[in-house]
Every structure is written in C-alpha cells, then in structure tokens.
Amino acid sequence: MYKLFARPGWGSVLAEAQLAWYGLPFEVEDLGDLFTSEEARQRLATVNPLAQIPTLVLPDGRVMTESAAITLYLADVTGRHDLVPEARAPERPEFLRWLVFMVANIYPTFTYADLPERFVPGVDAQKAFRVNVDTYAQRLWAQMDGAAGQPWFLGARFSAIDIFIAAMTQWRPKRPWFAGACPRLHAIAEGVDALPPLAEVWRRNYPPE
After folding, report:
1. Which CATH architecture has domain 2-80?
2. The domain 92-199: what is its CATH number?
3. What is this structure's pTM?
4. SS3 9
5. Domains of the chain: which residue ranges?
6. Do you know which InterPro entries this protein is assigned to (predicted)?
7. Cis amide linkage into residue 151, ω under 30° from 0
8. Per residue in 125-145, pLDDT tens?
9. Which single residue of 42, 93, 145, 199 could bond 182 by disulfide (Cβ 3.0 to 4.6 Å)?
10. 81-110 in b/e burial notation, b at 16+ Cβ within 10 A?
11. What is the DSSP string of 153-198?
12. 148 vs 94, 99, 182, 186, CA distance in Å?
C-alpha cells in the first residue's frame, strides 16, 4: 500500500492521478491547508522536511518526493509505458523535456505567487511581485501551447504530461483563461477530464462548484 500525503486540488493530484491510472493500492492522508496550519506542516515534515506535496510513502516505507521523480518511478516499478515513453521511444526526448519544463519552470511560479513574502519584503512589493510572476507563468504556458500536439501533447501518444496539464490548468489563471489564450492545452485538459480511469480523482480534487 502506498500512502500519499495530499490536499485536494493541490500538487498531490499529480501523483494521485497516476496511482489511480496504474491501479496501484494507495491511501490518501488529507492534510490541512499547509499555508495556514502549523499542525499540517509539522505532520508532513516528519516524512518530508520541506513540508511539500506530493509526498509519497512507498510500501517499504521509503519516501518519494518531486512530481517528476514520482512519475518516472511509478513507470519503472509497474514496468509500464502508457504514461512514460520507454527509453528508445521516439517521443521520449520530448516527453522528458516538457515534463521537466513543467515542474522546473511553471510549477514554482505557484509557490512564488502564493507566498510572495518568502521572496520579497513589503506588502506593496509583494503585490507587484505576484502580478509579475503570474504574467511570466502565462508566457510559459503560451510556450507550451505552441509546442502542443493533438489530441495529446505528444500528438497521438497519451502521457503523464497530459495528466499534468489537466491538473495544472485548474489552477491560476484557470480554465477560462486557457480556453482563450492556450486552446491546445485547454483541449488536452478537457480530453483528460473525460477519461474514466481518472474520473474519481478529478471528483475528489475538483468537485463541482
């Protein structure tokens, strides 16, 4: 049994969706708001000193963190290639490039904008910083949209990148912005939304308003 420390709608959904896709046995320990709950941060810090999610405890008790690392690990441990192209697959270089692009460039912008006080002193400067970070993130998304294939990011080949797109387009600036500014990514996200193996994950993390 895998154990996933999670918060509905947060970055833990990236790992949760893959665990569900592979049909791996897992339990979810829902944490409180890590931004406001010291108790939640301390509970998570016992297994991950950075107190960040996703944090995945493997069946043997070892801890995995970092979304891209978890993605590659789960493909290795299941011996499957439906979410991660195998080493010699022609799509492998593009997959690795854009997977790391998302986690190394886009994902951190949420931390910067959500917690500007970590990086910039002064309320006014923090507000401006958040606006600048969100604008920069939109430029990164536009770059991805220009590289996206159809119906999936890698073209005919479905992958974990499509799961990441479906989850992360639910976050700021959210789906309506993507529909107008990044239509390829929006179409990919809607396609992933409709996949039955992930339906319960999306209901748990993004319940209808």
Report:
1. 3-Layer(aba) Sandwich (3.40)
2. 1.20.1050
3. 0.95
4. coil
5. 2-80, 92-199
6. Glutathione-S-Trfase_C-like, Glutathione-S-Trfase_C_sf, Glutathione_S-Trfase_N, Thioredoxin-like_sf
7. yes
8. 999 999 999 999 999 999 999
9. 145
10. eebbbeeeeebbebbeebbebbbeebbebb
11. TTBS---HHHHHHHHHTTSTTHHHHHHHH-HHHHHHHHHHHT-GGG
12. 11, 12, 10, 11
